Amino acid sequence: MKIADIDLGERPVLLAPMEDVTDPSFRLICREMGAAMVYTEFVSAEALVRDISSTVRKLHIDERERPVAIQIYGREPEAMVEAARIVERAQPDIIDINFGCPVKKVAGKGAGAGMLRDIPKMLTITRAVVEAVSLPVTVKTRLGWDCENKIITDLGPRLQDCGIKALTVHGRTRSQMYTGQADWTLIKALKDDPRMEIPVIGNGDITTPEQARDAFDRFGVDAVMIGRASFGAPWIFHDVRQMLDTGAYTPLSVDEKFSLLRRQIRESVERIDEYRGILHIRRHLASSPLFKGIPNFRQTRIAMLRADTVAELDAILERVQQEVFVNGTGVAEVTSPEDIVTPE
Q1: Strands 6-7, 2-3: parallel, antiparallel or unpaired by DSSP?
Q2: How open is the CA angle 43-44-45, to the nearest 5 degrees?
Q3: CB atoms within 10 A of CB 275
Q4: Distances from the Cα of 277 to the Cαs of 22, 174, 265, 308, in angstroms?
């Protein structure tokens, strides 16, 4: 599958853009695990134009993580155009426009998924950004604003006409946020539309290698994007890639998974500093599916969230690794269903 001249291979799997998650270290690990392309955290156009340092830092790209897309969001065409030009100077492979973020502080102000209530403005912004830069421009959006306005099958060709090179669709409306099930039938309907000539990328509820395989087989998408399932589990790309390539997969060992989590801690601290790096990374650790099903894990999870040094976090991980997992198999010693406490 190609986006413009960027060849992502057969049935590529992409890392979704996620605020406070897809930092440079995490992106690079996901690329090494098998993600065909990665996306930065989404970047506010207005903040970028105002040269806010915390926003500008999000434009940093490690050459090893390519191909990489920088995603921008905003509600005013002028700011989006200026931001796109600033992003182009950072030399990503792709500029992606966020018309899908559902959170109130973004969508409630008319940006992100908020644009689904103003399609003419969405199209104006898309066309203006495409014309302002030489890099390929793509869009990520949702099915529509709510269940009464699932407009993606009409919207997709109109966005294509603006000159974008690929379209990612999350199979929920904005009103659904992340609740309920993603509806891939409308993604398939868009892909099957003979007017669509650009790649259609499906997103939503892909949490296992089997689901990724089925997304290609059942819905015919050109690529699959994985978001929340990678949170604290970058190895999902390893498993999915093996499934797609061979029809089966061999999970990484527990030791390998712990090693990846420790690497995230180390690189987060090296990138920022110990205090802020720990604040950033400990939510990854506490939410990792590696710890799902461990008896009485709640207090350990709380300890992770309260840790403020690398030494504390490393000691917690070491204790869990040594005391819980059996012979490196990743199977927790659960004595009865009542003992299971799933991390929230």
Answers
A1: antiparallel
A2: 110
A3: 11
A4: 14, 31, 7, 9
Give the range with max mean pLDDT: 71-85, 254-268, 284-298: 71-85
Q: How is residue 146 written in tokens? A: 């709510």
Provide the pLDDT for residue 272: 86
User: For residue 2, with 0-12 CB atoms within 10 Å meaning exposed, 13-18 middle and 19 or more buried, which class applies?
Assistant: middle
List, for residues 133-157, the tens digit of each pLDDT value.
Answer: 999 999 999 999 999 999 999 999 9
Q: What are phi and psi of 97, to 5 degrees?
A: -105, 130
Give the residue ranges of DSSP H helices in 100-200: 104-107, 119-132, 152-161, 185-192
Distance CA 108, CA 114 (A): 6
CA–CA separation, 287 and 305 (whole Å): 10
Q: Which two tokens stand for residue 115?
A: 């644009």
Structure tokens at 165: 């090179």
Residue 259 carries which side chain, given as an amino acid letter?
S
Q: How many CB atoms lie within 10 A of CB 18?
A: 19
- What are the pLDDT digits (tens) for 200-237? 999 999 999 999 999 999 999 999 999 999 999 999 99
Residues tagged active-site = 101
- List helix spans (H) across 272-309: 274-286, 298-306
Ramachandran bin of 46, using left for φ above 0, alpha for ψ from -120 to 50, beta for the remaining angles:
alpha
* C-alpha to C-alpha distances, 47 to 22, 54, 108, 133, 327, nearest whole angstrom: 18, 9, 17, 19, 50
